[in-house]
Amino acid sequence: MSSNLSSILARLDELAAYDGPWRPLRDEIPLLRTRLHELREREMRLDDLLVVALVGGSGVGKSTFLNALAGDQLAATSEYRPCTSVPCVYQPPGAAFGPAEWNRVYGSALENLVIIDTPDSDTIARHHRDMVVAALTQCDLIMICGSPEKYLDEATWSLLRPLREERTLVCVETKADTEAESIREHWLARLHEQGFAPREYFRVTARRTLDRKLTGRLAGHDEFDFPRLEAYLRHELSTEQVRRIKRSNAFGLLAKTLATLHERVGARAENLEALGIHLSECDKKATKETCARIGSRLFAEPHLWNFALGREVSLRAKGVVWTAYRVLEALRTLPARMAGMLRWIPRESAGRQAVALLSEQSLLTDDVDIVTPDVRDCYGQYHSELAVHLARAGFAHVNPDAGFNAFAENVRHRLAVLLRGPARDRIVARARLLTSWPATLLVDALPVAFVAYAGYRIVNFYFAGITLTGDYFLHAGTVLAILLGVELLVLSTLSRFFAWSARARATRDLRTSLLAGGIAFAPERKALQDALAAAQAIESLRGELAAGKTEAPEARAAAVDQPATRV
């Protein structure tokens, strides 16, 4: 777990940087940042001395126990009244721990530990309890002290409950007596009921040990587990074991942090997924209606597409018939071209739209305005419907204007890409097909043949000395005009059919492009995606942490059964 701790904290930092509109996560950010700060400190202190806090009610013998560990009268003691008003820190020479107002005693009895004798946890003085909390915040291991007369006080447990799974806990029965029944079983059972998992249990007589050390006598059997406790503090708490305890504490704090995030944030991922489905439905409905409105304005007017195809045909026209078609097309589209040149004509006019449609030079966003009141009303209707579901899921209000502007710009872009891309390519391809050389020769064949035949008759009659009357030329011109008119009518019909097919295909492309989804409600979708990603990240981190728990039992095992055989 220690190798992945930095990466996990880095991912939690990303969560702590969240500033989106999802209130369930945003409300947890202050606590998450506080926990991250503490985790960073614990990560930096993995190689520091182990900090042990002695905690318990008044008269349980905490100060006597500290004196017994040190073998000297370091702290004042009393059997009946509180005598520790300021934490007393027993630390190796050269160490500096705790605030300046705490009492410091330097000694070398336990070179790998810093021991804090805290004020009584059941005191009514608020200042004393605050100092106990400060000591608990900075410690790595808690030695909860109890005596047969006092070991179940609620005041002590109220201070320890917030630290469950965040600190390694050791129980010390400080006033053991052969004539009194051990409180071990009852104490441990009650601790387990409160959610605590002590790692060790020691039964000692601190007063006898202190007297023995002060007089220089050898240890006796009446001190119970005190020799084993000293061996545990001096030898079993090696450098590696201290690192394990510190890692275990960090593991517990991290697990509790993720459990809180799971309960208040991660568990709501299913609601977010349901909201995502509803958002997609609203997106499709709004886009479908917008597509229909745009289609009714641009794609439902054949003359716009006839104009576009006629313009491309005119640019490529050759031959007799196509030249005539070009002249007629120029006359027919003169109003539209004049509208394009006169900028004072409203942009929503058919002429301006015809000029803009499928044009390489004209900007669609300037010449064809798709942001009409009906489109805006349609978007607002579905945004209001979606806003209700967003509020129920815990999202703050999102300004619809930003979403609509992004939606309109996205529609403009996709429409412009379609019209200047596939749609225009089809128009150009059809114009090239109509004006290709084979088609041109085929169209010009009949008029050219008639003109050649009429010219042959004129020359032949001239050399034969026959004078042609005006009726002949009138009839020939009439027939030629009829031929040209019929062919121009056929070409116009064919051109209109090609324009219709291009418009129908473009309409299908428009539906495909817009109805693909992901266009409307961009801010809401971004907020939902960020929230869902955060919830999934929390669940992923919990899974990784659960998979790495093989290290936790070794460092945090509540293995109190094995010591019980030695009590």
Give a written overview of the molecule.
- With 567 residues, the chain is of the alpha/beta class.
- The chain has two domains: 50-264, 3-Layer(aba) Sandwich (Rossmann fold); 270-541, no CATH class.
- It is built from 23 helices and seven strands.
- The chain has helices at 2-16, 23-26, 29-44, 62-70, 126-138, 154-160, 184-193, 206-215, 226-236, 239-264, 269-299, 302-316, 320-332, 334-341, 350-356, 364-367, 373-392, 400-434, 437-463, 470-514, 522-547, 552-556, 561-564; strands spanning 50-55, 88-91, 103-106, 113-117, 141-146, 168-173, 200-203.
- A seven-stranded mixed β-sheet has the order 3-2-4-1-5-6-7, with helices on both faces.
- β6, α7 and β7 (200-203) form a beta-alpha-beta unit.
- It is rod-shaped.
- Residues 78-83, 344-352 and 550-567 have low confidence and may be disordered.
Looking at this protein, list some descriptive labels.
567 residues; alpha/beta; seven-stranded mixed sheet; 23 helices; 6% strand; rod-shaped
- Strand line-up in the sheet with most strands: 3-2-4-1-5-6-7
Largest sheet descriptor: 7 strands, mixed
Calculate the terminal CA-CA distance, rounded to whole Å: 34 Å
Average pLDDT works out at: 82
Number of domains: 2
Q: Which of globular, elongated, flat, extended, rod-shaped describes the shape? A: rod-shaped
Low-confidence stretches: 78-83, 344-352, 550-567
Short description:
With 567 residues, this protein is an alpha/beta fold. The protein has 23 helices and seven strands. The chain folds into two domains: 50-264, Rossmann fold (3-Layer(aba) Sandwich); 270-541, no CATH class.
